[in-house]
C-alpha cells in the first residue's frame, strides 16, 4: 500500500474484509455507524445507549426514510443460528414503540451464510403483522460493502481505518535503526533478566493476551517485516547492546503491566516507547519492532503449557 497521498480506494478492501470478519457486538455496531454517518451525513443519527431506554433498540436511524438499523454480530455462526430468531422477535415490538413513524427496519448482521430458516420465518411473521413497514435482513457482506464501504471517499476511508496509513512494506533499516537506538539509550529503573523470556510463541499468544481485533490485525500485518529488526540486532558490533534493547522492552512491558493497563493500552505504551508517532512511517516501524519482540516472547504473556492441551 502506498503512502496516504497515493492510496487508492481498493487498498482498503483488505481492511473491510478484516472488519467484517472480526468485529463483533459493539465493535461491529460502531463500525457500521461510522460508515453510515459518513455516507448519509446529517441524515443519519447514531443512537447511543443511555438512560432507562438504552439505545431504543436501534444502532442508527436514517431520518429522511424513517429507517432503523439494528445490528447483530455474535462471535460465531452457531451462536447466530441459535439466537437470531429470538433477537428479531424480542426486539421488534420495542422498535415499534420507540419509533412510531417507522417505515423501514433493517436487520444488519455478520453471518455470511445468511439467515437460518427460523430467523427467516420470524421476519416473514413480522411482515405479515406490520405490512406497512419494510422489514428485511440483506446479505450482510454485499450490503455493507456496496451501500456503505464503497461509497466512502478516500478521506473517509482513512478516517474509519486509521491504521491503513501505516505502510509496512516500506519499513527499512533506516526507519528501524534510530528507534532501536532510542530504546537502547533509555534508562530503565526496572531490573530484568534479559535472557529469561521463554520459548517462541504460536498464534494463540495474541488471543491469550486478549488484544482487540484492530491490535491483532496490525501485529499480523507487521509480522512479515520483522526480519529488518532481526538483521539490525544480529549485525550489532556489541552483542550486549541487543540484550540491552531486549531488556528495555521487557522492562517497559512490566512497567505498563504494573500500572494495570489492559492489553491494548500496554501495546500503545510500547508503540509510543519505541518511537511511534502520528507520522505513519514512524508508527509502522514502531509496530514492526514491537511485533518482533512480541514474537520473541520478550513482551506480553505466553500461553501456559496446560492451556495448549
UniProtKB/TrEMBL annotation:
Pfam families: CTD10. Residues 175-301 form the ABC-three component systems C-terminal domain. InterPro entries: ABC-3C_CTD10 (IPR046919). This is ABC-three component systems C-terminal domain-containing protein.
